[in-house]
Specification:
CATH class of one domain: Mainly Alpha
Shape: elongated
Largest sheet: 2 strands, antiparallel
Strand order of the largest sheet: 1-2
Structural class: mainly alpha
CATH topology of one domain: Arc Repressor Mutant, subunit A
Number of strands: 2
Number of helices: 4
Order of helices and strands: HHHHEE
Helix content: 40-55%
Strand content: 5-15%
Distance between the termini: 83 Å
CATH superfamily of one domain: Winged helix-like DNA-binding domain superfamily/Winged helix DNA-binding domain
């Protein structure tokens, strides 16, 4: 006659304390990993600090701009197109999916 062996009181106690500890760790990790939503409003392209940040980068892609300025990807694409119209950046290469820019010196 098979079946699972009944645990002793000490074994049940250990299992319960392990379960409680793991729940505490999960709650602490969830509290630390609070993420902010990316911004929708792009930074001011007339600001020298913003332009200086862009000039430091060798290659500008929507992903790099989005991660640097904490923007959504679609907002970063629009921001780069505005900068191209103003003459701050220059289009280097493009494909169906991505555009690559560089800062104009």
């Amino acid at each position: 006659m098979g079946g699972k062996k009944k645990l002793s009181l000490k074994q049940m106690e250990r299992m319960q304390t392990k379960r409680d500890e793991s729940k505490k760790k999960e709650k602490a990790a969830a509290a630390r990993k609070e993420k902010k939503a990316p911004r929708i409003i792009p930074p001011n392209f007339r600001d020298e600090k913003t332009v200086g940040e862009l000039r430091k980068l060798r290659v500008l892609t929507p992903y790099t701009v989005a991660s640097r300025f904490d923007l959504r990807l679609s907002t970063a694409k629009d921001f780069l197109e505005q900068l191209e119209e103003r003459g701050v950046v220059q289009l280097v290469s493009r494909s169906r999916n991505i555009k690559i820019y560089k800062a104009v010196d």
